[in-house]
Amino acid sequence: MESLEYRECLIELIYQLADDDFLLAYRGSEWLGLAPHIEEDVAFASISQDLMGHAALYYGLLEDLGEGKVDKLTHDRSPEQFRNAILVELPNGTGTYLEDPSYDWAFTVVRNYFYTLSKKIRLDSIKKASYEPLQQIVQKISIEMSYHMMHWEVWFNQLINSTPEARRRMEEAVKTVIEELGGVFSYGRFGDRMVRLSLIESEEVLKQRWITYLNKEVAKEPLTMKQGNGRNGVHTIHLANALDTLSEVYKSVPTAEW
Amino acid sequence: MVLKEKVIEVLGSVKDPEIPVVSVVDLGMIHKVHLQEGHVSIEVMPTFSGCPALEIIKRNIEQAVESIPEVKSLTVTFIRYPIWTTDLVSERAKQELKKFGIAPPEGHVDGEWHVPCPYCGSVYTTIDNIFGPAACRSILYCKSCKNPFEAMKPVSI
Asked: Domain locations in chain B?
């Protein structure tokens, strides 16, 4: 590998990609059995499984780069070591999976659609980038992701063009998601160096591509990160809660072989 | 029979745990088999990245190949590249899938995806759900013979 700086930036970027998919896969899995209808339950479960697979590919690459075992990376890091955007750690609604889950489908559709589109734009940019093993993973993920894009795009367009109530709820959800979507495009404190080292194109270029592709009047507010920048380890309490649940079994017997 | 042929032959007995009529060879998952004086290493292309059957497949490959007496050591690795696509699925596997009630992968989903019914051959079918009970399959319905069926999702670069 070219230099220490290159390695540091590369690892940081892979953590961002990995942690985003990992957390959103978890949030998706919390919908299991609760989705609006049975076909959606099957589809959403399958998408969440794909996302977990994508996270596993990235974590595998981090393991190869000397960051430690995949299981440790996913189950044994503190919240401030996570590099995901705050958008993907937010809960699906009020209540929990086990107790009074009052989940918000509009928010879920908008979050997943906007996120998947941003993921596509980020991965397309990485395909042109300088690190081959990451390019290879990204190619594989892109193939599977095209099915996710189709899925969320259909949901988004159908709901936003549906009844006045659906429209109102979707507009509210768009507002909530846009407030944190800037965090998905951020590369955190390593951003300038990642771009200079040709690991990915600049945040501004990618954001503009996202806006152009979406081309929707409803999403005209600027993309911000209201609750902080997850790329720099700033998170809400919801991440800590999610990680507690995710790692409950692992931490019960940390020395077990899985 | 030379060792390489024996290895390929036993690989033909390792089936997809979720579709027990097709082998890992027929699915096009085996990229390379290297041999050096009884030391065998096999490069396998994973199908869908989130597929929970992958670890089981790896274990089954290990068990099958280690049963050959001449094999002194074995490593099975999932490789990142080249990428598995459904273009690698063999003709024989396509026929077996059909008999099993799964339409083989054909065409492209984002273009026109016409999937003939594996039971009656009619193209008067609809896609119920692109996502199915496994990462690699979709759920469809035949309006001619009124059977629901599954199809392997076409995947290409």
From this structure: 3-84, 95-152
